Amino acid sequence: MPRRIAPSTAGAGRRVAIVLSRFNPEIGEGLLGGALRALKEAGVAADDVLVVTVPGALESPLALQRLAQSGDYHALVALGAVIRGDTYHFEIVSNESASGVSGVMLEFGTPIGNGILTCDTDGQAQARMDAKGYEAAQAALELANLCDALDDD
Fold this sequence. Notes:
Elements (H helix, E strand, L loop, with lengths): L15 E6 L3 H18 L6 E6 L5 H11 L4 E9 L5 H20 L3 E8 L2 H31 L1
Parallel strand pairs: 1-2, 1-3, 3-4
């Protein structure tokens, strides 16, 4: 029988930083609300959460990189919303921000929950914002706990 590492979103004693894009601010605040609720429910102390803002999704990877470089955080969360417009800009921002977030995570080995929504309409983003923020924070904690379990293995 193979051994399995059970998923865990426990957050007690964890330090988490959130990078929030200010573009589409109403959606961002909804994402942040969901993420903060998830962290609180997981046992992360409010004093162990840092929230920083950046202009948009394309700027998120640099802030995430600096936070990862600091070594001060067990996990990071990226939040924002990219909503399709009439130009190709949507694809560029969506693809490059996702690539940047993944690149930081792999370069530094710091878990990052990617809560940058990519939606066709404001309505889609509004419908998903609370749940996506919540899920991104949970994913970050789960990865942090998995990394610790793998390191202890």
